[in-house]
Amino acid sequence: MTKTIRVRYAPSPTGLLHIGNARTALFNYLYARHHGGTFLIRIEDTDRKRHVEDGERSQLENLRWLGIDWDESPETHANYRQSERLELYQKYIDQLLAEGKAYKSYVTEEELAAERERQEKAGETPRYINEFLGMSEDEKAAYIAEREAAGIVPTVRLAVNEAGIYKWNDMVKGEITFEGANIGGDWVIQKKDGYPTYNFAVVVDDHDMQISHVIRGDDHIANTPKQLMVYEALGWEAPEFGHMTLIINSETGKKLSKRDINTLQFIEDYRQKGYLPEAIFNFIALLGWNPGGEDEIFSREQLIALFDENRLSKSPAAFDQKKLDWMSNDYIKNADLDKIFALCKPYLEEAGRLTDKAEKLVELYKPQMTSADEIVPLTDLFFSDFPELGEAEREVMAAETVPTVLEAFKANLEAMSDEDFLPENISPQIKAVQKETGIKGKNLFMPIRIAVSGEMHGPELPNTIYLLGREKSIKHIDQVIEELKR
Ligand code: GLU
Questions:
Q1: 258 noted as active-site residue
Q2: Whole-model pTM above 0.90?
Q3: pLDDT of residue 1
Q4: Which of 122, 133, 230, 449 has the maximal Cβ count within 10 Å?
Q5: Which of 12, 28, 42 has most ligand 1 atoms within 8 Å of CB, for mutation?
Q6: What is residue 469's predicted lDDT score, i.e. its pLDDT?
Q7: Would you state the pLDDT for residue 84?
Q8: Ligand 1 interacting residues, C-beta cut-off 6 A
Q9: Which helix (H) or strand (E) holds 7?
Q10: pLDDT at 3
Q11: Which residues of the chain have a pLDDT value below 50?
Q12: Which ligand 1 atom is the nearest neighbour of the CA of 8?
């Protein structure tokens, strides 16, 4: 029997879209699209304290930027935000209360904290101990009346089946088992403010929205037995679960953390630096999954076709910035110039460099770019003073043959007519120097490159000279000749 596939991405709008959440969204998306299922977005906004203004909009906008689309969401469907579903949660809480499967709890924060401290001191695992334990019915009624009179607002707790065994066959990790006795006692399903807790609301929602598979990060594993308890209490069939391994920083070997300030982790960061969304999509799709084989560059369509949940990795996914840079460069290098020029335009404009040569400059640097914002520092040569030579460059320029090469090349540039000053005519001028001086190879090219651009490495030389212009190229050469005399 095949189930209709319905999966969801359920962000809490507590901040910007993080790469870990983007991966969850992306794998659910790929799973749904591969199997012809439905992918929906539900906003889990019951934690009012952590709510961030605009969090929902920015999450959706960044998903869209990545190229992820969805079939159902708060934009098109009523009540797809948990804050709009309070009546539904209340209905089931009332049902559980009526059936004696849940109860009102009057214990105070202070009492809980004191009990926790006692347990810690005694070396016991912290757990909630039923506050009514050992009370007769009369004592219980008196306790409740007294607390209600004192204005204490109760929470609602699920009466946990301590003898229960909660297990599931995880799509990623295989069989996982929890004992009811080990989850910390009867837990809160409704907070004092009337909002359900995450573990309760998520079950009501996943059931109500007919979710077939819950694919999420493995930080949720310990929540799953609690959720299974709610399915049990409400008499519902649980969906399949799959918990993806965490993402580690390949540099530190530790869990990718928002404190790793040198690692870009928010989709917004990549967007602002001018990465191509296709590259980020491709990179994220390989965080904890791969289709097998050596290839690493895949379009969205290919990833949808290839996606196979059985290949979700059991070991942590490594976030490797170098790989991301490599991949991003590969996408930029192979993209149409039009597209990359458009991507670079805002940065050039802001730097006041959107001149008539701008597109040519982008073409020149495209093969080496990782993100579009790099176009500004890369084009410094064309807009700033000639840089002072670095140590390595000075060393190359100390060779005896250098002045000969530079003088000869300068003379050839000067001899060119204005109409002839074109990239395809500049190469022959370099070759002519070889003929005239007998100097060739590195001894020929390096000094010219350094004299013109100030650096040993850089983009294609004839085009660089062409774009610099004859006057500026000669000025640079003169400057270096002078410098070498000192
Ligand atoms: N709102 C939860 C989160 O952002 C979703 C958990 C789930 O997928 O069940 O982590």
A1: yes
A2: yes
A3: 46
A4: 230
A5: 12
A6: 95
A7: 95
A8: 10-12, 44, 202, 216, 220
A9: strand 6-9
A10: 75
A11: 1
A12: 8
Tell me the pLDDT tens digit for each residue of 279-290: 999 999 999 999
Using CA atoms, how far apart are residues 271 and 195, in angstroms rounded to an integer?
35
Q: Report the 3 state secondary structure along 232-301.
A: HHHCCCCCEEEEECCEEECCCCCECCCCCCCCCCEHHHHHHHCCCHHHHHHHHHCCCECCCCCCCCCCHH
List pLDDT tens digits, range 156-191.
999 999 999 999 999 999 999 999 999 999 999 999
What's the Cα-to-Cα distance from 392 to each of 374, 440, 451, rounded to whole Å?
23, 20, 13
Q: Strand, coil or helix: what is 469?
A: coil
Cα(first)–Cα(last) distance of the chain, in Å? 85
**For residue 131, how far is its CA from the centre of ligand 1 (angstroms)?**
30
Residue 158 contacts residue 189 (beta carbons within 8 Å): yes
Instruction: Determine the distance separating the centroid of ligand 1 and the alpha carbon of 6, expressed in angstroms.
Output: 16
Q: Contacts by 11-14 with C-beta closer than 8 Å and gap 24+?
A: 11/41, 11/43, 11/44, 11/56, 11/59, 12/43, 12/44, 12/45, 12/47, 12/50, 12/55, 13/43, 13/45, 13/51, 13/52, 13/55, 13/56, 13/59, 14/47, 14/50, 14/51, 14/52, 14/55
Ligand 1 atom nearest to CA at 206:
9
Pocket test for ligand 1, best of 198, 207, 214 (most atoms within 8 A of CB): 198
Q: What's the chain's average pLDDT? A: 95
Distance 387 CA to ligand 1 centre (A): 52
Q: For 365-416, how does the pLDDT look when each residue is reduced to its tens digit (9 = 90+)? A: 999 999 999 999 999 999 999 888 999 999 999 999 999 999 999 999 999 9
Q: Give the chain's domains with CATH numbers.
A: 1-72+245-331 (3.40.50.620), 88-190 (3.90.800.10), 335-374 (no CATH), 385-485 (1.10.10.350)
Task: Determine which one of 91, 140, 254, 258 is catalytic.
Answer: 258
Q: How far is the CA of 128 from the centre of ligand 1 (A)?
A: 24
Give the angle subtended at the CA of 348 by the CAs of 345 and 352, to the nearest 5°.
130
Nearest of 184, 169, 365 to residue 199 by alpha carbon: 184
Q: Hey, which of 21, 28, 44 would you mutate to test ligand 1's pocket, going by the most ligand atoms within 8 Å of its Cβ?
A: 44
